[in-house]
Amino acid sequence: AEFLRKLREAEPHEVADLTLSCKAKLGALVQGRGENGIFINEGGLLTDAHTKLDNDPTIVYATPWHGLNQMTSLGGFYTPQLIIFAAAPKSFKTGVMLNLALGFVKQGLKVYYADAENGEKSILRRSMQHFLEAKAVDVYNDHYKFAPMAALIQKFAPTGNMWVDSYPTFRASMGDVEERLAELKEVHSYVPNVIIYDSIDHFIPTNSYDRNKKEYEKIGIVYFEAINLNKRYGYFSIAPSQVTKEAVGKESFKMSDLGGSFAKVANCHASFAICQTPEEELIGIARIEPIVQREGKSHVTSKGGGYGCILRMEKDIMQIKETTVEEI
Hints:
single chain
């Protein structure tokens, strides 16, 4: 409105300068330099790439599992990635998420666990099981014995921690997550490095108009909202997702095996499969293999050695440890 008013009052020779000034102000807003601007990360010239990378290096966070790190482009995950782990129903997906999360905690990172499936008490109890290597019944019946949990965690992770919140299934959005993270920062000075969504498929688009769109469109919107949240605040995020019923028990998964929509693999940065045949399930073994990655290795089979990742799952005490073909 101010620009139009000035334009009407301007002399002919002033129009060009006035227009350039307006464009500059709009550009500053779009690049996040104005009060209400859209935030973007400023880039630069290719010939200055070395300076950009030196001044703003990519911080890579390794997972607890060496084989998984080897499959990625930089040896772990980094901002603003959204990483999806696909598996069959009831195949210890939450156990994988918790072992990843608590592995980051042990590295000294702060994790935000956005649960939309289990409830915060369940996640906290399972976390206690992991640190104590105890069964659920022991933690449930004798929780008073494990009161000094803070001291135990500080022994493993002097600076790391995890905040757990529970969100209503198919009612909460990334906008709700962003508001909660802002509250945690202001009230508790808690700023995470990584967000675990369990599961991101249980969140809905922030904009009410988008909630009426087709299922594959809603999935894509939620995934992009999560990625944009990562970009704005410097997070990376990880989430589980289910495969189709036809894929259950298969030795390996491919892109078409992810349940719900192809938008899952199309919009995340990388998707890994938690593979487990019926025979492997009986002996507590699972394999992580890449389904698709924007960067990193694809089409790696754990059984073939090399960059595979084989895990031994002790579900009763919430432990996952990397193993090898020779040790099985």
